[in-house]
Amino acid sequence: MIPLFQMNGSDKMIRFIVEKEGLNVRDYLLSEVHLSRQTLKKIKFHGGAIYVNNEVSNVRTPVKKGDVIDCLLPKEERSASLYPVELPLDLVYEDDFILVINKPAHLPVVPTIGNNTPSLAHGLIHYYDQSQLPYTVHIVTRLDQDTSG
């Protein structure tokens, strides 16, 4: 399996090279690649697409070893609770796929219900907007509000 991410504006394509015989697209993506059922549903019903060897396909298409499965992910929608707030961000590392930030103490990572305090997620939305990146925030790991690092 060789995932290849290709970003064209807001479109994200994930590529997989089939390594196991005898499965259809759905079973391969779920059992061999461990794509979540929720992600597969979003691809199928919310503007995504599946291609096998550059041909439009569906989840029932049988695949064989060496086939290329491309999954076009639908455009992500930002939560209404994520609006841009200009915050100083201590960027440690950034590339096309990951952004590492040194979070100061006392800054919440994500917004909470009933609390209008700006969060790191709000600052990231501002950063994305200023950089003209059509992304939403996906926190991989997080620290408590009072923890820095």
Keywords:
single chain; 5-stranded antiparallel beta sheet; alpha+beta; two-stranded antiparallel ribbon; 9 strands; 149 residues; 3 helices
Molecular structure report:
- The protein is an alpha+beta fold.
- The protein is 19% helix and 26% strand.
- The protein is built from three helices and nine strands.
- It has helices at residues 25-32, 37-45, 120-130; strands spanning 4-8, 11-17, 23-24, 49-52, 55-57, 62-63, 68-73, 90-94, 99-102.
- The strands form three sheets. Strands 1-2-7-4-5 form a five-stranded antiparallel sheet, covered by helices on one side. The protein has a two-stranded antiparallel sheet with strand order 3-6. A two-stranded antiparallel ribbon has the order 8-9.
- A hairpin with a 2-residue loop joins strand 1 (4-8) and strand 2.
- Mean pLDDT is 86; it is low at 1-10.
What's the topology here?
Elements lengths: L3 E5 L2 E7 L5 E2 H8 L4 H9 L3 E4 L2 E3 L4 E2 L4 E6 L16 E5 L4 E4 L17 H11 L19
Antiparallel strand pairs: 1-2, 2-7, 3-6, 4-5, 4-7, 8-9
